[in-house]
Specification:
single chain; alpha+beta; seven-stranded mixed beta sheet; 21 helices; 17% strand
Length: 638
């Protein structure tokens, strides 16, 4: 059975041509929800209305929402690619990967047709003969570059009409930020030379700029114009110091853009390094929407289409972390835009691979920084808590939120985690870790019940319940944990006396039902409970059959995702430690004659089972309590 009845679209599907083009799906309110390109519109669009079994979850959700469709025929698949990027940028469809907040990204513009050009910020690239540089990811990025260029080169920043008849120049002239065309203190050629230096600097040709300035410095000093020569010397020094801070050398003197991709749950970030003549002269970071459940090759391809559709410059080579969808087509399109061949390359080793990895690391840092900024924004946290209260119909603002997660591999080394957020802010000193004791096999529901029983034992005792349990110290996992992560026995843990305003478990209906049963049996079933299902990011609450779907742009969704991800991270970290310790213990326990004391002596001396296995029999025999024959048994057993 098709997901969407084909009947409303039968006539449109029959009329679809077998030519290349762009198809547009609209929702019930007429809004554009998806834009796609196709080499054959007939084959591609009809595929959405066939059997749903092979569809990805995101595609199934898309098809359910299609209320109307239309298409635009293009002459070539390359034209379809360009049109798709244009329509995605214009309509921002929910199911497309798109640049976040992409209205019109800012550029730097130098209009050389003007008699006394300036460096300006603009958000539109026109075919007017002006030089454009960008796009930049934000107004902050472009303003930082503009401020830098202004400090290094004395072009005019005023908007007045230049007549050359002003009695005296403005303050910029006296602090060497302008060469005073308004008062005829420079010629037109001298001013144009400054603008050419700005252009070369923005193109990354800093070596040519400094070489030109050194030539001018020598000429002025030979003409005994020592004050001007000193200013040129200082300008050269400032440019060199600036480029030293930005430069990472690449031996090959080729213009390249280097892309690094970072993803975490629903978020994606792309870092771009701009390499010009072997130097990384700048970088920028772009956040993406709609990347959930999309493979990396499609995410990167969508970004590159939208980025270069409005980019002022296309380099000779583009370095990527992974091959992208429609790579030959995009390569052909970029070559046409540049007017020369453009290569899309996925480097496998060497400095180029290291550069791609550095870009990816920076993209990951940008994601973490965005999260940190969100957590520091009191207004957004308050808004998130209010939205959460409204959506879940909570009796009060969820000031204290506790989230629980289970981590195991087919039931082995099973652990649970509890993280606490107070007023939208993580409280690491109240995080707790649980070692699963009573559940055998891979039963996540029972494990979650055990964790909740042990957590609410203290609160349950006040209501007459009696569940004896102990919270495991993270130190048992092997190695000393950070101070903020330390656990304590429940008997002396005052934090368990605090009753949460909301409990979140990682999972859907099943997890919520199991958790509610455990809490109800302890007398704390009145505490609000919700489950966050990872695949669709839907919230489930008890006694409600349909999930609560938070808007993708809501602060509440962002908050619960952060809380869930933190609980998952905390559980995984503990699980790895427990698994590692269990592996070390079982390997040595299997050796006859090696008891707890001898095992401890070996691990203290060698540090790991791997190091023991690689040691010689003489080295093991030199350990207190060991003989040569026992050392040989250890090596044989390992």
């Amino acid at each position: 059975m098709p997901i969407v009845p084909a009947r409303p679209f039968q006539e449109q599907l029959r009329a679809l041509p077998g030519r290349s083009g762009v198809y547009i799906f609209r929702g019930a309110k007429g809004q554009v929800i998806y834009v796609g390109k196709a080499a054959s519109l007939k084959n591609r669009v009809r595929s959405y209305f066939g059997s749903p079994h092979s569809f990805e979850p995101k595609t199934r959700r898309l098809v359910k929402q299609i209320a109307d469709l239309e298409y635009i025929v293009t002459g070539t698949t390359q034209e379809a690619l360009i049109l798709e990027a244009t329509l995605v940028k214009r309509h921002q469809p929910f199911f497309n990967v798109r640049l976040k907040d992409d209205k019109h990204y800012p550029y730097l513009k130098i209009d050389l047709s003007q008699p006394w050009p300036r460096v300006e910020i603009t958000r539109r690239v026109l075919e007017d003969g002006a030089r454009y540089f960008g796009p930049f990811a934000s107004a902050g990025s472009v303003r930082r570059t503009l401020d830098l260029v202004k400090k290094l080169f004395p072009w005019r920043s005023c908007t007045k009409t230049i007549t050359g008849t002003d009695p005296r120049p403005c303050l910029d002239y006296y602090i060497h930020r302008c060469i005073g065309p308004c008062a005829s203190l420079c010629t037109k050629d001298e001013y144009d030379a400054v603008l050419q230096q700005v252009i070369m600097f923005l193109e990354g040709r800093t070596d040519e700029v400094t070489r030109d300035l050194r030539r001018q410095m020598l000429q002025t000093s030979e003409a005994l114009q020592f004050e001007r020569a000193a200013r040129l010397r200082d300008q050269i020094g400032a440019i060199e110091r600036t480029t030293e801070r930005q430069v990472m050398e690449v031996r090959e003197r080729v213009d390249m853009d280097v892309f690094g991709l970072a993803r975490e749950d629903q978020e994606a970030s792309v870092q771009v390094f701009f390499v010009r003549r072997g130097n990384v002269i700048g970088r920028d970071n772009f956040a993406l929407d709609g990347a959930a459940e999309e493979p990396d090759d499609h995410v990167l391809a969508s970004f590159i289409e939208q980025f270069y559709q409005s980019a002022a410059y296309v380099p000779q080579r583009v370095l990527l972390p992974t091959p992208i969808a429609d790579q030959p087509l995009i390569e052909q399109w970029l070559s046409q835009r540049r007017g020369k061949r453009v290569e899309l390359v996925v480097p496998q080793r060497g400095e180029k691979r290291a550069l791609v990895q550095t870009a990816a690391d920076n993209a990951r840092e940008a994601l973490q920084l965005a999260r940190a900024k969100w957590l520091a924004d009191t207004g957004k946290k308050r808004q998130a808590l209010e939205e959460l209260q409204e959506e879940l119909n909570l009796p009060a603002l969820p000031s204290r939120i506790e989230c629980y997660d289970i981590s195991n591999i087919q039931g082995t080394s099973a652990v649970g985690s509890m993280v606490v957020f107070i007023d939208g802010q993580p409280r690491p000193q109240e995080y707790r870790r649980f070692r699963i004791k009573t559940v055998a096999g891979a039963n996540d529901f029972a494990m979650m019940q055990e964790v909740l029983k042990r957590r609410f034992a203290r609160a349950g005792q006040a209501l007459g319940a009696d569940v004896g349990a102990r919270l495991v110290s993270p130190g048992e996992a092997g190695g000393a944990p950070p101070a903020a992560d330390k656990g304590r026995p429940i008997e002396c843990d005052e934090s368990f006396g605090a009753v949460p305003d909301l409990v979140i478990v990682d999972g859907g209906k099943g997890q919520v039902s199991a958790a509610h049963d455990a809490m109800r049996n302890l007398g704390v079933g009145h505490i609000p409970l919700a489950g966050l299902a990872k695949r669709f990011e839907e919230l489930y609450v008890k006694d409600v059959s349909e999930p609560i779907v938070l808007p993708r742009t809501s602060q509440a969704l962002y908050l619960v995702q952060r809380i869930r991800d933190e609980a998952h991270r905390f559980a995984i970290t503990y699980h790895r430690g427990v698994r590692q310790k269990a592996g070390m213990r079982s390997a040595l326990d299997a050796v006859p004659g090696v008891g707890p004391k001898r095992k401890k002596a070996l691990l203290r001396k060698f540090g790991s089972v791997k190091a023991i296995r690689e040691a010689s029999a003489d080295e093991i025999a030199a350990t207190p309590g060991f003989t040569r024959s026992l050392a040989e048994k250890v090596l044989e057993g390992l």
